[in-house]
Design goal:
Keywords: Carboxypeptidase, Cell shape, Cell wall biogenesis/degradation, Glycosyltransferase, Hydrolase, Multifunctional enzyme, Peptidoglycan synthesis, Protease, Transferase. The chain is of the alpha+beta class and 734 residues long. It has 28 helices and 19 strands. The protein is elongated, with a radius of gyration of 32 Å.
């Protein structure tokens, strides 16, 4: 509750209110709109002296997106979610609603309403309610034009909203000049075509389609009142973004205002208030759905770029401003997309699964040392077109199946997560020659019941005991993907250290359950090393790219350069990299990762791998990688890398995690990823992997490490995970 106001303060407010009210009446009676005497020169701005964008609304400049060759056009961005319409094509109730909501005296004042300004000032001085601005529709139009004018500098656009007296006076002068030169209907039409209604919709035509799926001429009273109410605070009131209560409250306010202006009767207002919030939202169109014919696969990369763009402060203070900048700022964007790598990735993804297959193979390629994303492919059309009944994501979808986001959490990547256990162990002082006599099943300290348990404890097993069991070191444990070796190793180093390592390399836990495990139960996340957490091909490729770059992590980035319409380079998109691993640790992990792909480590310790065909596809070029299969082969994954590129592909059903893709597809996934790598390095000089130090290699001939089985009574579980282990049991195969 606000502090009590003193008698002197209350007296001052009364006197000020009386003074302003008298001033308002005096100015209203003066000829020639002498309120402009408040300006420094006491002169009216002439129409000819107005900024060109106010006299002739600026045509937004298109932004162009090119591939990394600077020549291949991906798409253009323009204001596709804003279509100018004539006032005659806007429902009369919509016109009445916006006037009632924002400027009841619109048809009476001369562009600036001194009465309204005085009333707002008095209300703000009194306090106790929402701050009032006193801006007319014409003044708001001036502000909207100037703050979004692509021909003005960023400083000039920012000045259009400065909270200064000088800016307000200039706004009044411009609004009055417009009112003298344009008719009220022209001003109203211009306002309705530029106002922001939230959820990416600029102008009433886009808003009508965005919220109700209809043209503005068909808007009902209730719909018009809802839209008109959004303008005051589009982000706060937008019902699409979950603010339905605020939107309905604001709708009621607009309806009451329409009664006050005489636009509708009280009975009509009551009837409209009783109507439920009946939204029929349509997906926001953007330039990514307009890629070249035959290249709709580029849409996923384009959408990833757009998501990156709206997170960059260089393009505006808010998401809405950044989106507007992309659509109308006239930028030239050289992206990191490599057309040849993208073409191969798309060809391979669709070779494994067709466009009409419910299963998918999303593939991502990243450049180590820069984080530049070279390709993003999946056997889907990036399109808003309808799908067959009951099919959510195929053959058409705009969901980020490759990069993750919104409702796409990712997919289990199986034993590719063993890399994080190996890195954590190496960082903790273990060597590549750390040995363990890996059994077919390994009793752990984690309490569990049902399948996969041994005497009440979680008991992971090797998928191929005849080939995997026995004495293993990191080299052949990784090469043969021995589950019990890596679960044992994770227990030695600490599960929380393994989880932290994955996060350090950029693995993002988008699923709430995974995020909770990582935050509150990392030390007990026994099966994390077996890849039960959801991830994406992009995150996975970039994590392995960090190892390829000898421990330098780079934030994924989709651009090489961005140039503004005035020819100046925008300082965004440069590689953002940092060392997260000791170079020797990364080299050691890479040395072990040579084993799965049919190559030999620097110490000659590889003796079998799960993806040996990769060596042949790369013609013996230095390469490393890892396979991963989740429980019951629900997903099949392969990540491969050279010093120049890292590529990951995950075969899965994006709509049904229980759909088992089957082990037969693993060789196809391996082949697909390897061929993308081959395209990426074609024509580039062959680079070798640096060997790790002898200190990290250790002595591969030391005695077998046979730890004693833990005494369950002496070593109780630190925390009984209970139901959490049920999810862990969903993955025990490498």
């Amino acid at each position: 509750m606000a502090a009590p106001r003193s008698p002197l303060s209350r007296l001052f407010t009364v006197l000020l209110a009386g003074l302003l009210a008298g001033l308002a009446l005096a100015v209203a009676a003066l000829p020639g709109n002498l309120l402009l005497g408040f300006t420094a020169r006491s002169a009216l701005a002439s129409y000819a002296s107005l900024p060109a964008s106010l006299r002739t609304p600026a045509t937004p400049q298109r932004s162009y997106l090119y591939a990394n060759d600077g020549k291949t056009l991906i798409t253009t961005f323009y204001d596709v979610n804003r279509t100018d319409v004539a006032l005659a094509d806007i429902a009369p109730v919509m016109r009445q609603a916006i006037v009632a909501a924002e400027d009841r005296r619109f048809y009476d004042h001369g562009g600036a309403d001194l009465r309204g300004l005085a009333r707002a000032l008095v209300a703000n001085v009194k306090g106790g309610g929402t701050e009032q601005g006193g801006s007319t529709l014409t003044m708001q139009y001036v502000r909207n034009v100037l703050k979004t004018d692509p021909t003005r500098t960023a400083e000039e656009r920012a000045a259009a909203t400065d909270p200064t007296v000088g800016r307000k006076i200039q706004e009044i002068r411009y609004a009055s000049a417009l009112d003298k030169s344009l008719g009220k209907d022209e001003i109203l039409d211009r306002y309705l075509n530029i106002a922001y209604f939230g959820s990416g919709a600029y102008g009433v035509a886009a808003a009508s389609q965005r919220y109700f799926g209809k043209p503005p001429a068909q808007l009902t009273l209730a719909e018009s009142a809802l839209l008109a109410g959004l303008v005051q605070s589009p982000d706060a009131y937008s019902p699409i973004d979950g603010n339905s209560d605020d939107a309905l409250a604001r709708r009621s306010y607009v309806l009451d205002s329409m009664v006050a202006t005489g636009s509708i009767t009280a009975a009509q207002a009551a009837q409209a208030k009783a109507e439920p919030l009946a939204l029929h939202p349509t997906a926001q169109p953007n330039g990514c759905t307009a890629v070249s014919q035959g290249h709709d696969d580029w849409g996923y990369f384009c959408d990833y770029l757009r998501r990156w763009w709206v997170a960059q402060p260089a393009f505006g203070a808010t998401v809405a401003e950044r989106e507007q900048a992309l659509r109308s700022g006239g930028y030239t964007v050289i992206t990191s997309l490599d057309p040849k790598v993208q073409a191969t990735a798309q060809q391979q993804a669709t070779k494994v699964y067709g466009y009409d297959n419910k299963r998918a193979l999303p593939i991502a390629a990243v450049q180590p040392g820069t984080g530049q994303v070279l390709a993003m492919a999946v056997n889907r059309h990036y399109s808003l077109a309808d799908n067959p009944a009951g099919q959510a994501n195929y053959p058409n979808t705009v969901n980020p199946l490759i990069s993750g986001g919104t409702s796409v959490h990712g997919y289990q990547a199986g034993s590719t997560f063993k890399l994080f256990t190996m890195l954590a162990a190496l960082e903790a002082g273990r060597t590549l020659s750390t040995g363990f006599d890996a059994p077919a099943k390994l009793p752990t300290r984690y309490a569990a019941e049902g399948p996969g348990s041994c005497d009440g404890h979680w008991c992971p097993a090797n998928a191929n005991p005849d080939w995997m069991d026995g004495y293993r070191m990191m080299w052949d444990g990784f090469g043969r993907s021995v589950n019990t070796y890596f679960v044992w190793l994770a227990e030695q180093v600490g599960q929380d250290k393994v989880v932290e390592m994955a996060q350090r390399l950029g693995i993002t836990f988008r699923a709430d359950s995974d995020a909770a495990f990582a935050k509150d139960n990392a030390a007990n996340w026994g099966s994390f090393t077996l890849g039960v957490a959801a991830t994406t091909p992009l995150d996975l490729a970039n994590a392995y790219a960090t190892v390829a770059a000898e421990g330098t992590y780079c934030t994924p980035v989709p651009v090489v350069s961005v140039t503004a319409a005035n020819g100046e380079k925008v300082p965004v998109g440069q590689p953002s990299c940092k060392r997260v691993l000791d170079a020797d640790v990364a080299r050691a992990a890479t040395d072990a990762a040579r084993c799965p792909v049919g190559q030999q480590s620097a110490f000659g310790q590889c003796n079998g791998g799960t993806a040996t065909g990769v060596n042949d596809i790369l013609d013996g070029r230095p390469v490393a990688g890892k396979t991963g299969s989740s429980e019951q082969n629900s997903t099949e994954t392969f990540v491969g890398f050279t010093p120049q590129v890292a590529v990951a592909g995950i075969a899965a059903n994006p709509d049904d995690p229980a759909d088992e893709v089957g082990s037969a597809v693993q060789t196809k996934v391996i082949d697909a990823v390897a061929r993308v790598i081959a395209t990426a390095v074609k024509g580039q000089p062959e680079k070798t992997f640096a060997a790790p130090s002898h200190e990290l290699a250790g002595d591969p001939h030391r005695p077998v490490d046979r730890p004693k089985a833990p005494d369950r009574e002496q070593q109780p579980t630190e925390e009984d995970p209970g139901d959490l282990l049920q999810r862990w049991l969903n993955n025990r195969r490498g």
